[in-house]
Design a protein that fits this description.
The chain contains no helices and 15 strands. By secondary structure, the protein is mainly beta. The protein has one domain. Strands 1, 4, 5, 8, 9, 10, 11, 12 and 15 form a 9-stranded antiparallel β-sheet that branches. The chain has a two-stranded antiparallel ribbon with strand order 2-3. The chain has a two-stranded antiparallel ribbon with strand order 6-7. The two termini are 36 Å apart.
């Protein structure tokens, strides 16, 4: 289209030794305090950005990731039909807490055809769920249970007001004023930021989701001298 574009791509595979495992308990990180795990990380990150609209920078990104760890001495208990313990098996590689399979981002910006100082943008973020497990139950760690997917759409508008000419401007005089209005998470998605675990008198553990902020209106003003 006769405008500048750039494509970035990265593929990586990393094998990690002497890893310190950790669990996520709501907003707290609980480290094992032992370098007793090996792990691997593999993924692809891609991004294309440019002026899809002349004079307005926009981009699209896609990331695919997998990361797992093998903790020394980690095992799963086997039971018979009567509930008796018959043995233990090694768990092998399990999902790490930051194992988010897909992460998609879109930022699209536009402006009025005859007035580039008035701009608008749409920001879209999507991520698949993260694995979770209740604390104190190591056998459930790294299971397929996961949080809900993360979804967020932001909408913003901005206007630049020129108050003086660069050549005629005096010292201390205001040059321009940038005014921006943003509506974050405009769809009001209930994104989960973590879980609180509650145990009843019978020893059953229940997970209670903690939600992130929903719709937020943000007004910003930037003065340039």
């Amino acid at each position: 289209m006769g405008r500048p574009f750039r494509f970035n791509g990265e593929a990586y595979v990393k094998y990690l030794t002497d890893v310190v495992p950790y669990d996520i308990d709501n907003v707290r990180l609980r480290y094992f305090a032992k370098n007793n795990a090996t792990a691997y990380v593999a993924g692809i990150d891609t991004r294309i950005g440019g002026e899809f609209v002349n004079g307005a920078e926009s981009w699209f990104s896609l990331g695919v990731l997998t990361t797992r760890e093998n903790i020394e001495g980690d095992s799963v208990t086997r039971y018979d039909e009567d509930g008796n313990i018959v043995g233990r098996d090694a768990k092998g590689y399990i999902r790490r807490p930051q194992d988010q399979r897909v992460n998609l981002g879109v930022f699209f910006q536009d402006h009025l055809p005859n007035n580039p100082s008035v701009r608008g943008y749409v920001n879209i973020v999507f991520g698949t769920g993260l694995p979770f497990s209740p604390p104190g139950l190591p056998e459930l760690r790294g299971t397929d249970a996961q949080t809900r997917s993360y979804k967020r759409v932001d909408l913003g508008f901005s206007k630049v007001v020129a108050l003086s000419n660069q050549r005629e401007r005096r010292i201390g005089q205001l040059e321009s004023l940038w005014i921006g209005l943003e509506i974050l998470n405009i769809l009001g998605a209930n994104n989960v930021g973590g879980y609180s675990y509650i145990q009843d008198l019978n020893g059953r553990t229940y997970s209670v989701p903690n939600y992130l902020s929903q719709r937020v209106v943000n007004l910003r003003v930037i003065a340039r001298f």
